[in-house]
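Consider this one:
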Amino acid sequence: MSSRGVLKPQLYPPGASLRTTGPLNRTVSAPNTGKAAHPAPMLAAAKPTVTKKRTQQVADDVIVISDTEDERSPKKAAKLVPPVQVKGPTQRERALQAENENLRRMLSRANPQSIDKAKNLKRAFEAERDEEHRKLRSALEARIRQLETKVERGDSRLEVITKQRDEIQTRLEEADNHVQTLTSQNDELRHAAPDWVDGEPSEAIKEALECPVCFDTQRFPYMMVDCGHSFCLVCLCEHLSTGLAKEPPVLECPGCRSRLLHRPRENFALKSVISSIYSAPTHDEETAVKMQAEWFDTFRWVS
């Protein structure tokens, strides 16, 4: 207990009288028992508010004095109030308090020159940051414009490619239709042409391509310009040689016996047809035929 609420005990001799102070203002005599002096009773200090206490016999020689005059009133039981548990600061609050304390110490040590320098550095940093942001934004906008241009070009190119694809598709469809038409026509011609049997010319075609004199295929046909008949070169030369041996000499067609006034000419149309059906003549054969045909130049033709 504190010294304010209770007086320190003192020793008094037997038979001595005690005088209390305070609102009671009583004189108490200690019992004379012939024993050694005991400590004086502990008296409560005067307080503004008088508390009610009963006089209790603690021991034979100790008397507790109550501050109230009504000593017979029953003592009321005191209510037990649990102590209020005050929660301490949380870890986050302690961290914030430490950070605030550091900031206060830093601000207390800062001077106006350092504050101005910090502000200047901050403004320079913000200016540099804004400049970097501006450059980056400009570069990004330029890149976006380039990509948009490429996309537009790609769209235009895609339209052109799509158009070309449609045209090619149309041409392919037309070609397929044409192939089908040719196939149908070929089938019709194959069935309608009895002169061809399994890809080979019939006997009628073979007879039309034969020489009327030797009945062999005219590999080098020559046509009479005056009458239009065609004969192979070998047969024609033999026939003209026979006519020249006569007296007087006679130059006439081997077929119709009409007089020949013009030089015989090579029948290229018939030669092409024969070459498409049979094998074409070799180079040596062509050279020999031309040398033999020069014999016609010895005659006097009208043209």
